[in-house]
Write a structure and sequence with these properties.
single chain; alpha/beta; six-stranded parallel beta sheet; four-stranded antiparallel beta sheet; binds ligand ME8
């Protein structure tokens, strides 16, 4: 038997010092949709997420809340787990950086980099942002009238001097550039690739990779005074999940990762530091870093200090899970920043889901239930119009595949909804209700064609709206093992005469609740 290709996909691991917000939900939903797409392509998928539980921020937040950093980490991990469940986007595997196996992996990669001669002890002095857990150069710092200093991202910085281990990042600039050149898709979209390439071309400085000013982290092998810089340990999570350093572990077969999905603010860490660490430790590099944009609530960046953090769970419970998943992935071109608002959500839910897809399914399937004895009609001779709409439906699998190869989830959805719109026009134009009396066989053909289009649409939209798609495919009598993209083809067409379950609506219209009852 041919082995199925493996596909290892990860999200960034959220900082455990805050609650899940819409940005986290968006990243999880998008990654889940890509993972689900690869599953219906019949690949052997390993979808991993995790929690980033170390660092000074964790220590400080926990102290403020009168708890230990571990208690804070446990609380946040439970909230993210709940988010994954509510969004129907649970990963196959969750890695938490406070787990003993992760300490082992982090110490192993450290040891490998040290063995290579890439780690040395020196002194670090610079402007440090606690919020961002990063140092900034003098030239990047701004100050306000009160003499307070800020990072380029507007967070307060303070002058810190400490003994630190350094990683010889400077040594890897040329190899990194050669890698970007040889693998033009290593960082996508291009915009982010270009930013990284020009940054590396300006030259890289060695990187401070340990801290002595706090102790909530992975101790450096051989020197307990130091804990690892949180990013060394955080990035290593992607290896821990595969069993590293045990390369005979069952999950090691998934390494190297196919895709690390991340937000645009952490590209440097993933596209520069991470491959350099891996080169140093002589571990194969991930194939792609896929960067998504930021989501803004009505154009404003969400953050705790702005006070407009919308709870993802509240949003999903209010609008519906498939509705929220569809909205984010259809509305925001993947890779770009996007906005969301109540009005935009309601518009997509009612226009695309309830009207276009929902009504087409409901009208055609209830006609079949009433007029065809609850069985899929047997099609007669196909007209030009029938052939045309079917051809569009059968082209969807390949169009979806092409769009998904570029992570253009929005384009894949636009293609599916173009077919839905054309199928609605076809249905209205062919007037099956009028044929019921004068040409019942023709009515049956029109209904069969519409149901067959819905079957193909139902298959390709499963990654984004899994619950509604499953319901639609159930109503069309599609067996669970006939829902792969390869079944979105004429060779797996709906069999005339197949008994179908009674249809029920897949997407209700959104009805405005009483004032004050909606989130955001
Ligand atoms: O960066 N819109 O954690 P994090 C879209 N622990 N995405 C957003 C967003 C927004 N408004 N805000 C954040 C970290 N994100 C590190 C990652 S990985 C080894 C370590 C994205 O909780 C952000 O870009 O700040 C990142 O990909 C993810 O959410 C976690 O962010």
């Amino acid at each position: 038997m041919a082995t199925r290709p493996t596909f290892y996909i990860t999200t960034a691991i959220p900082y455990a010092n805050g609650k899940p917000h819409i940005g986290h939900a968006y990243e999880r939903i998008a990654t889940d949709a890509i993972a689900r797409f690869k599953r219906i392509e019949d690949e052997d998928v390993f979808f991993v997420t995790g929690m980033d539980e170390h660092g000074l921020k964790m220590q400080q937040t926990a102290a403020r809340e009168n708890m230990t950093p571990q208690q804070l980490a446990d609380r946040t991990a439970a909230e993210f787990d709940r988010m994954g469940g509510v969004l129907n986007a649970r990963a196959d595997h969750v890695i938490r950086t406070t787990e003993p196996r992760h300490y082992a992996a982090s110490r192993a990669i450290w040891a490998a980099m040290e063995k290579k001669g890439d780690i040395y002890l020196s002194k670090y002095a610079g402007w440090y942002s606690v919020r961002e857990e990063a140092y900034f150069d003098e030239g990047e710092i701004t100050s306000n009238g009160d003499g307070q200093k800020f990072s380029p991202n507007g967070t307060p910085v303070e002058w810190v001097e400490e003994e630190s281990y350094f990683f010889r990042l400077s040594k890897y600039a040329d190899r990194l550039l050669a890698h970007y050149e040889a693998h033009p898709d290593f960082i996508v979209p291009d915009k982010y690739r270009n930013e990284i390439v020009s940054f590396v071309k300006r030259g890289l400085q060695d990187l401070s990779i340990s801290r002595t000013t706090f102790n909530w982290g992975v101790p450096v092998p051989g020197n307990d005074k130091h804990v690892m810089y949180v990013w060394v340990d955080a990035l290593t999570n992607y290896l821990t999940a595969c069993g590293y350093p045990d390369t005979s572990a069952p999950h090691w077969r998934y390494w190297p990762a196919n895709v690390h999905v991340i937000g645009k603010d952490i590209t440097r860490f993933h596209a520069i530091y991470w491959p350099a660490f891996l080169m140093s430790a002589e571990i194969a590099l991930p194939k792609q870093i896929v960067v998504h944009g930021f989501l803004f609530s009505r154009g404003e960046k969400m953050s705790k200090s702005v006070g407009n953090v919308v709870d993802a769970i509240t949003m999903a419970e209010h609008y519906g899970v498939d509705q929220m998943r569809y909205f984010f992935l259809r509305e925001v071109p993947f890779g770009q920043d996007g906005n969301y608002s109540h009005e935009a959500l309601v518009n997509r839910i009612n226009a695309d889901l309830a009207n276009d897809l929902g009504n087409l399914a409901q009208r055609s399937l209830s006609m079949i239930a009433k007029n065809c004895d609850g069985k899929a009609p047997v099609p007669g001779r196909l007209s030009e119009a029938d052939e045309a709409i079917l051809a569009q439906a059968y082209a969807l699998a390949q169009k979806t595949r092409e769009a998904m190869a570029d992570f253009a989830i929005h384009t894949a959805l636009a293609e599916a909804w173009r077919v839905v719109a054309d199928a609605n026009r076809y249905f209205a134009g062919e007037e099956p209700w009028a044929r019921r009396k004068d040409n019942p066989e023709r009515m049956g053909t029109i209904l069969w064609v519409t149901a067959e289009v819905l079957r193909n649409v139902g298959i390709v939209v499963q990654p984004v709206i899994p619950t509604a798609a499953a319901k639609l495919l159930d109503m069309l009598g599609v067996a669970p093992d006939r829902r792969l993209t390869k079944h979105a083809a004429a060779t797996s067409a709906l069999a005339g005469g197949l008994a179908l379950p009674a249809p029920t609506p897949i997407f209700p219209r959104y009805v405005e609740p009483e004032a004050g009852e909606r989130p955001a």
